[in-house]
Amino acid sequence: MKVKCDYCRQLIDEGEKNCPFCGASMPTSNRVASKQPKSIEELRQWYVDHNLPPEKTTRFFIGKNIKEPKAFGIYKDNTGDFVVYKNKSDGKREIRYQGVDEEYAVNELYQRLKAEIADQKRNNNAKKESPADKALGCLLTPIVFLFSPIGMTALAWIGLVLILLFDHSPSSGYYRYQGNDYYYQGSSWYVYNAMADDWERAANGSELDEIINDDTDDDYRVYDHYGKRFEDSTWYDTGDSDDDDDWDSDSTWDSGDSWDSDSTDWDSDW
Q1: How far is 268 from 135, CA to CA, in rounded Å?
Q2: Any idea which of 87-96, 108-117, 141-150 has the lowest mean pLDDT?
Q3: Among 228, 245, 255, 254, which residue's Cα sits nearest to residue 28?
Q4: In this structure, which of 4, 83, 106, 166 has its CB flanked by the most CB atoms within 10 Å?
Q5: pLDDT value at residue 82
Q6: Computed from CA positions of residues 163, 165, 169, 171, in that sequence, does the dihedral angle turn out positive or negative?
Q7: What is the DSSP letter of 232?
Q8: 185-244 confidence digits (pLDDT tens)
């Protein structure tokens, strides 16, 4: 019945409100959206419904205690605890969560799985579009639109080309910079306020734009976070507020793409 502190990485009792090692406040377990899986069986079905590759390809093992290197997983042990783990490339195991709260445990692996799907999709898109393709697209796009019935002004064309060439915005998600947790969404930065246990617009957004971009995502991107999830805040925009049933449709896998588990960061704790 242990959970890892996101600040000092020590395993502590899941009921603790503050970490006895570093004093950090522990996140509440009320982190699960209404449409996501809450049990191991529901997570296994979610995996199937979203057309994900076989577990030996993705290296996500639901309901199994896999011992070999390079594996994420969740299972229920013989004491009744739910264990969420990651086996690194050298075989060392990191326990993300161990306790009786199945919903909490499932959410930990579910969030990591969704993040991995997003990374794999991004890798596939990068492979499909070479630098030459990007350059050609930037040249052809204004030409096509210029002779379309819609038409555009010369200034608008220049702006479009500049955006295509120089837009290096980071992908949406969590980032950690100088000890603070940030979330990037829709060209805006948000920072977690530990005192209020809530999110607010980041005053240093322009600085973050300069430091963090699509070329340095891996240097600052994180898959854990402090306190309240950004997805539970009023700032979060799913883009489908009128249809809550499709809120996780971006996690459906295209069978035509390849999943390369070797591209996963197997040396990090999570």
Answers
A1: 35
A2: 141-150
A3: 228
A4: 106
A5: 97
A6: positive
A7: G
A8: 888 899 999 888 889 999 998 899 899 987 787 889 887 777 888 888 878 775 544 444
Among candidate residues 19, 251, 232, 220, the one with its CA nearest the CA of residue 117: 251
C-alpha span between 117 and 109 (Å, rounded): 12
Instruction: Tell me the HSE value of 170 on the side-chain side, using a 13 A CA sphere.
Output: 26
Tokens of 240: 């489908």
The model's pLDDT over 29-72, given as tens digits with 9 standing for 90+, comes to 444 455 789 999 999 999 999 999 999 999 999 999 999 999 99
Alpha-carbon distances of 190 from 181, 184, 198, 215, 248, rounded to whole Å: 9, 6, 10, 20, 22
Euclidean distance between CA atoms 26 and 5, whole angstroms: 7
- Is the Cα torsion angle 152, 155, 160, 161 positive or negative in sign? positive
Q: Where are the domains of the chain?
A: 31-128, 132-166
Q: Which two tokens stand for residue 45?
A: 């079905």
Q: Which helix (H) or strand (E) holds 261?
A: none
* Burial (Cβ within 10 Å: 0-12, 13-18, ≥19) of residue 163: exposed
> Nearest 5°: CA angle at 29, between 219 and 228?
50
